[in-house]
Amino acid sequence: MLLPALVDHADHNDDWVVFIGSSALVAAVCALVAVATRGERIVMTQRLGFLLVTCVWLTASVVGALPLYLSGLGITFETAVYEAVSGVTTTGGTALTGLDSMPRGVLLWRSLLQWLGGIGLVAMMVLILPQLRGGGQSLFQLESSDRSDKLLPRFSQLASALVWVYGGLTFACAAAYYLAGMGLFDAVNHAMTTVTTAGFSTHDASLGRYGTPAILLVAILFMTLGALPAVLYIRIFLPRSFQRWSDPQVLVFLAICLVFGLALSAVRYFLEGVAAGTALLTGFFNLISLITTTGFSTQDYMLWPNAALGILLPALFIGGCAGSTAGGFKVNRLVILFSLVSANFRRLLRPHAVERLKYGRIDITPAMIETLMIFITLYLVLVVAGTIAMTMLGVDFLSAFSGSLSAVGNVGPGFGPLIGPAGNFSALPDGALWVLSFLMLVGRLEIVTVLILLSPDFWRDR
């Protein structure tokens, strides 16, 4: 919070006092907790891990909302919480308007929330999700008992490597934005929210404020890099590690982006008569923005032909690769589902054949299949429940459905007159913001991590 305080103080904005006060309050509470638990011996268990991750994200959301609520924005507590949750979960949907005239300290704080949330998410996936056998497929080799098959010997080393990866990508992205013509402050903010596939902007028009194709090309490149597994970049620098590692989801994800991007560009070129270069640039930009769950926009794609919306809607669902900051259903699960369907067809043709299902070098076990089916069911149940809850609060069906789907997948924008790319979430009632905040948190933590806390068995002593 001291960084936004410095920026506001330099701009002679009184909100620097708010950031200083919030920082002092949070530091005091943390100091009291540290003193109260000093000398305690903590035994990390799987149950404690689930509880810890959920509590950390809840705490981060409240802490992130504190300076927003106390600042001179004059927003409600519900709006502040929604904005903070959208930040730390790297969703990118905003309930704030007037970003162009907003204090720079607040804009920097929003970007910092997304950058820190993105790094924290990947670290959580490495530490917790391999135990679930349903998330982070590209990281499954970390649970192997063979140390030579691990990426790095200790988790602390892996966490440090992740920070260096995202720090390096952020620096490169900021430099590329600056060289492409973006101002320094905007370049730094957009770099933090591009690399983490988050989507907060410093302008109401998002990247549509910049008409420079070079800026959109930079965004396309780094959104794509941010949606790839983080371990991919670490393995590049490890001797012979990259050659031993292959993740099917990477090629599938890139293929989906290419096919869907070309299809969307073709729709704009043939049905709208847009110039070929513009059709390719806007088609790929908006497709990559949605499928990586970043949420940047350049124009209102709701005005495009229905065929274009038919291409963008699946992108809202698919998401990026497991082991990245991107949300959505995740490509690794699609690969496993395709393997299951193909195997089922082959068994129908050859009932007595015996085959091993594999995901890359990893065997697909019955436990993984069971967890995947549970995840799919819970994913759909959350979207339906969120849609019902929001329609009961007076939100139109299209906005309620796409908003719930966007929140669970941590995408950002949705479809409809309220929350489409030309609008934001400020028009939604406070109750709907609470619903979406819950869905964003549950979706960001891969659903099971949070919902398992609601099980009575979780709290029983074993």
From TrEMBL:
Q: What does this protein do?
A: Low-affinity potassium transport system. Interacts with Trk system potassium uptake protein TrkA.
Amino-acid biosynthesis as a keyword? no
Q: Could you tell me the membrane topology recorded for this protein? A: Multi-pass membrane protein
What name does the UniProt record give this protein? Trk system potassium uptake protein
Would you identify the family this protein belongs to, as annotated? Belongs to the TrkH potassium transport family.
Q: Which InterPro entries match?
A: Cat_transpt, TrkH
**PANTHER family recorded:** TRK SYSTEM POTASSIUM UPTAKE PROTEIN (PTHR32024:SF3), TRK SYSTEM POTASSIUM UPTAKE PROTEIN TRKG-RELATED (PTHR32024)
Subcellular location as annotated? Cell inner membrane; Cell membrane
UniProt entry keywords in alphabetical sequence: Cell inner membrane, Cell membrane, Ion transport, Membrane, Potassium, Potassium transport, Transmembrane, Transmembrane helix, Transport
Chain ranges passing through the membrane:
16-36, 48-70, 112-129, 158-180, 214-238, 250-271, 277-296, 303-325, 369-395, 431-454
